[in-house]
């Protein structure tokens, strides 16, 4: 059954996701019928599918969910944030169970109790008081673990649970625990089990009672307790509510299915309906009866059967000579041709990586064709070679594009958890927040999505926690009481951008400067010299935003440096801008893919280096005179900002450029906590390269992200500027 | 004696009380493949039930007493006896 | 009825739960039936009209078109109105059974079906001999 089981896992995951979305929508708009239906159907389908397997607690819980939804659907119960919480908890539990099922193949041992507790929460009813419904099932956890058979025996409704653990020495005082249960009215279930594993007979003390009794009675607690008057200290009773058993006894029981089915056909003839309905039912019944008789080895003329199906009486008479118990001769069973179901193709990530690596190699090899073609000169063969090279070029480009696309997934994957996160966090904080998601269809490499998930959650949490104010404060500031959190994704110059913006309190640069000084990160002069934008950017400085007090000052929470680090590890960067009182916007700029990195090729001291494009804010020439030098520390004003300038030769320990030059070539690198101008000898092309981590002796070198081969076969070192600086 | 022992078969009759505990324990221990007939048993002391649950003898006939019949049928004894 | 070419009777399973469809397919195919699937009433009707089955097994609650509606439409179609139908549902109440029969079902099975029950019902309604183990 494992294939079927796998299918269930996938189906359950999908349904739970659908249900989560529908629940969010429903909470927002309790009148949203489509979402109620969607949610109901999800629970309903889960119930049906899970019942195919041995996972009664799962079925129990989704059944309770279905019941709740059916009340909602019929307007007999209203949606409240509290009920939404309970439904979310139920969905979460199911998701954990599905994960456990996928992992271990079974539900965890405590599933029965968990299911019962959650189901009870769901059936809490409109009053939702602790006393409503449920009873005290948690005091009798075994009630949740009843087998289907026991549940059927116990029936439904409010029952009295009895938990009796006799004193081990009770036999000496003349007690006979079992006998007490004879006096329990309406005893529905009696479970007798050893309180501890029974020792081998030879080691057993026959006069010590080691049994434990658990029972359910249909009578009220008051009617049950007198039976245990002599042992009040050893017995617990309480009322519990059992919902109806969900697996009824098999319909046909012992009687022949054929006979029951034939009887049912006669009954169908009697059902009310329009003349047309009854006529078509008659036709269906006639065919069914003929089929059943054939199956029983009594093939009968269709016409005769049809004639007999005129009314109940004639069909009864027709069948009167006993709907066959005559065993038929078994016919050889033909094996059915199995139709292959259409499936989405799943590819192992390793194979995908291998393909990407090959495509990368191919691009590089292809690049070497260019020089070859040039060397071939001008002859006819050279022309053919050139045409051939051009064709290979475009094919390799297409191939790379196609291979890249294989790995692309919509950002919806990382957006999906957000509505729930926002909903839960906002509710916890007593804030009202409207989440606006845009660009969920934007695609990015799977690896990038993996990198993106965590920082994105962090940003959203921070915005809720520290950005968006409490409703009263917002109202006082003349804002709508509900905050708006916008998460927007889009593609931009070969990368993907995810923007998290809120209309909250914003970050006060003055407070940031004070905090930086207080923390000893900057001296007062340096702090004062910071532009407002750079002061705000301090949230990304390592160790800056780890203290709780900062969040109150700045409106930003902990761990922003972790967000920056994650973005940079992926070859991207993070930007922030904020207006006090109006809100904050944080942008994650990430490359489209991890395996192929777009670099700006720069030259220093005769060697080529690559700087990831994602870090490059611009490239320009700067006149020597514009560079201010204080001792050896140089700086330059770029785009109205004072930017420290570093020389790549110096960073790499190369000799200074002795050539007399009027201007310097500068690459503006955006490094999260501030821009840096990197002076290089020359700036070349932008190139897509397959980045290979440093290996062997090179691995110890700091400051390099890896090596890469350019299209023309030249090797470059890709810089890790942060490490280098 | 409410319990009659006959080689490997013990017949429980009428009310079987705590007095029968020790003899039953010894018999169960000494008998290789014990069988019990509970059909005539009207009362079964907890101490005896506990021994039966520990030794799991074959039940050749279940109790006619409705309450006991239920107790036995729901126990591993009942399931073992088909 | 059983095809003369050795292929078994065709059963159309209409259910929006992929697990239930897969279960029914597995159980029925193992018994020699040829199984076709549809995920809702509309698709079920389309499949049935494209290739009239010998039996339909229909779930109740499905999006787009539920099982009741599908059966009603089926019973109005001149070419399909006599196709035996089993309705399958998680509900065990008598009223649910009644509703199924009113809509046009010939039989009602509570989910999850026991494999042998499903097979026996399918055999009976398609006129396939039950074989030794099928009859009591």
TrEMBL record, chain A:
Keywords: ATP-binding, Chemotaxis, Kinase, Nucleotide-binding, Phosphoprotein, Transferase, Two-component regulatory system. CDD domains: HPT (cd00088). It catalyses: ATP + protein L-histidine = ADP + protein N-phospho-L-histidine. The keyword Lyase does not apply. Its EC number is 2.7.13.3. It comes from the Bacteria. Residues 1-101 form the HPt domain. Residues 327-341 have a biased composition (Low complexity). PROSITE patterns: CHEW, HIS_KIN, HPT. The modification Phosphohistidine is found at residue 44. Residues 321-341 are annotated as: Disordered. Residues 391-594 form the Histidine kinase domain. Residues 596-725 form the CheW-like domain. Pfam families: CheW, H-kinase_dim, HATPase_c, Hpt. The keyword Cytoplasm does not apply. Involved in the transmission of sensory signals from the chemoreceptors to the flagellar motors. CheA is autophosphorylated; it can transfer its phosphate group to either CheB or CheY. This is Chemotaxis protein CheA.
From TrEMBL, chain B:
It comes from the Bacteria. This is Uncharacterized protein. The lineage of its organism: Bacteria, Pseudomonadati, Pseudomonadota, Alphaproteobacteria, Rhodospirillales.
From TrEMBL, chain C:
InterPro entries: Bact_response_regulator, CheY-like_superfamily, Sig_transdc_resp-reg_receiver. It comes from Azospirillum endophyticum. This is Response regulator. The keyword Oxidoreductase does not apply. Keywords: Phosphoprotein. SMART domains: REC. Residues 10-126 form the Response regulatory domain. The modification 4-aspartylphosphate is found at residue 59. The keyword Repressor does not apply.
